[in-house]
NADH-ubiquinone oxidoreductase chain 4 (Pinus strobus), 170 residues
Amino acid sequence: NIQGIGGSIPPMLSHGPVPPAPSPCVGFLYDRHKTRPAKYYGGSVSTMPNPPTIFFSSTLANMSLPGTSSSIGEFPILVGAFQINSLVATLAALGMILGAAYSPWLYNRVVLGNLKPNFPHKFSDPNGREVPIFLPFLVGVARMGVHPKVFPDRMHTSVGNLVQHGKFHR
């Protein structure tokens, strides 16, 4: 239906900046420590305040916090899905809830807590080469979240035509 398809397009666009946003954080942590397990990075906020701030903003977007690009289409998707199949919509809602619960858990493991004694001397903020990598991700998330009406307005005719002329079976 038009609600489900129309609601699915903003999250697809949001998958451009949101999932890759934490990747540069992981990359520069790996450059400094040559390891990826989250258990080694607890307490990093005390020695490098900027990456946790960037990681936190991407965590909020991953949780679909209102005002970020991820939150735009979730409700219309669920409304459209409930109209077609309530079991699938319930499972989708459960997946959204579990994903939103996982993000702060991961943030807590990597950023907060006690400083790990293995790496305290290697924690440092991103350098001049690393900082500009984050900007396109953060701007994309904020732009889509602050001005979400732009996307449904431009997509409405196309989505309506797709639903009208498409062959969707129940």
Notes: Residues 2-157 form one domain. The helical segments are 2-14, 22-33, 50-62, 74-84, 86-110, 131-146, 150-165.
